[in-house]
Write a structure and sequence with these properties.
By secondary structure, this protein is mostly helical. The protein has 20 helices and no strands. InterPro entries: Chitin_Synth_Reg, Sel1-like, TPR-like_helical_dom_sf.
């Protein structure tokens, strides 16, 4: 900029004035194009909302409205062109080109970063591998340039690409770690937390407890829920070389729970467990509050919390009345996230059924038990052996049943060991509504 200014001063007054006028015209043209672009977005948005309202009211027959923007297969859901969203308002090619033009006309790293993130987001659903690869390559090139120039968000985003396996097809923490370190130095809280996790678990670097705690504290000072949760656990139980202090640990967990997100609901679960058993003079036993905390965590997608609620409503724990409907609901939430115990609990429900709530289904029981067994849950391995022995599922096969029993026995299930030794199995199906446990499950 200073060089440009000195050149302008060397010019005759008329030429300098003309250059200044040209720059002003270019700036006005750029602002005009941005304004036009925003107007197009707003018009498209209003049109889309009108169609949605008409569809909700049953006023639109989509087959008779082929010109609707929602009928265009190239339209993506990306209402305001931010990372993590897709474009619905303009067609893919129009949006991409407008975004590219604006990114090229400015040196604003934020806009350039948004363009790079948009290209990655927009490329994921594309079926054409060549177009998708071209978009990803262009995006990664721009992200590397921004990261090299010290843009913290680009450094963090690029690190996430390496850590998730997006960049190379498999996780590469050797590349991700230094990028997180750089971003954390620029004050990026999530990058500081990720750096702490790398030192904590030895990902992309050697394990270093002191540095892990250092970066956790740095992220926690910016109210990062994940860092506050990890510090809470570390301080509560005296991990990573930190002296145990239950009182301070609970304080960190409370702060984290207040900032909990779907990515970091863990403090809610930890506090719920603490209020189940209590800590003398620090945490009082409060079953109702535990259930409330588990519920908050389950709403954020925490599988272990949903499973615990399933248990509470099934067996009447923590002050909950037995309620098959709620039990099945929470088990399902957890099982959908492949929680082994929840998958097995659903198998048990399907094996006996619940009148008016869940129809009995051997087929479903087999499916959910198999999903739990695939996670090496010992009692699920045993159940698969029994199912295969007696013919619950696709076929009856004693040789396959023996293999399941061997796996269950190796995993520590005593019933499987007894079955392999020839001890008969009492395999009646008891009604859960009568508060009895199924012998097999």
């Amino acid at each position: 900029m200073q060089q440009m200014q000195s050149r302008r001063e060397d010019l005759p007054e008329g030429q300098a004035h003309m250059m200044q006028m040209q720059q002003q015209q270019q700036q006005q043209q750029f602002e005009y194009e941005q304004q036009l672009y925003l107007q197009q977005q707003q018009q498209q948005y209003e049109q889309e909302m009108m169609y949605q309202q008409q569809m909700a009211g049953g006023q639109v027959d989509w087959q008779q409205n082929p010109d609707s923007p929602l009928q265009d297969p190239s339209v993506l859901s990306h209402s305001h062109l931010k990372p993590g969203h897709k474009a619905t308002l303009l067609s893919y090619t129009q949006t991409l080109e407008l975004y590219r033009q604006n990114a090229k006309k400015t040196n604003d790293p934020e806009l350039q970063f948004e363009f790079a993130a948009f290209m990655i987001d927009a490329g994921k659903p594309l079926e054409d591998p060549q177009t998708r690869t071209e978009l990803f390559d262009e995006a990664m090139k721009l992200l590397r340039k921004l990261a090299t120039n010290g843009h913290a968000e680009s450094q963090h985003y690029l690190a996430e690409c390496f850590a998730s396996g997006f960049a190379k097809g498999k996780p590469d923490f050797d590349k991700a770690f230094p990028l997180w370190v750089q971003a954390s130095k620029h004050g990026h809280p999530d990058a500081a937390y990720r750096t702490g996790r790398c030192y904590d678990e030895g990902l992309g670097t050697r394990k270093d407890n002191a540095r892990a705690v250092q970066f956790y504290r740095k992220a926690a000072s910016a109210n990062h829920p994940g860092a506050m949760w990890r510090l809470g656990v570390v301080t509560l139980y005296g991990e990573l070389g930190v002296a145990a202090s239950p009182r301070d640990g609970v304080k960190w967990l409370k702060r984290s729970s207040q900032a909990a997100t779907p990515e970091f609901p863990f403090a809610l679960y930890e506090l719920a467990q603490l209020h189940e058993r209590g800590i003398e003079n620090i945490v009082f036993v409060d079953p109702d509050y535990s259930v409330s905390l588990y519920s908050q965590a389950a709403e954020l997608g925490h599988a272990a919390s949903a499973f615990r609620l399933g248990e509470c409503w099934e067996y009447g724990k923590l002050g909950c009345k037995q309620d098959p409907r709620l039990s099945i609901h929470y088990y399902t939430l957890a099982a959908q996230q492949e929680h082994p115990e929840a998958c097995f609990a659903l198998a048990a429900w399907y094996l006996v059924g619940s009148q008016g709530i869940l129809p009995q289904s051997d087929a479903e029981a087999y499916i959910w038990a198999k999903r739990a067994a695939d996670k090496d849950l010992p009692k699920a391995l045993y159940a698969m052996g029994y199912f295969t022995e007696v013919g619950i599922g696709p076929r009856k096969d004693m040789e396959e049943a023996i293999e399941w029993y061997k796996k269950a026995s190796a995993a520590g299930d005593k019933r499987a060991t007894e079955r392999l030794e020839g001890v008969p199995v009492n395999a009646k199906k008891d009604d859960k509504g009568n508060n009895e446990k199924c012998t097999i499950m």
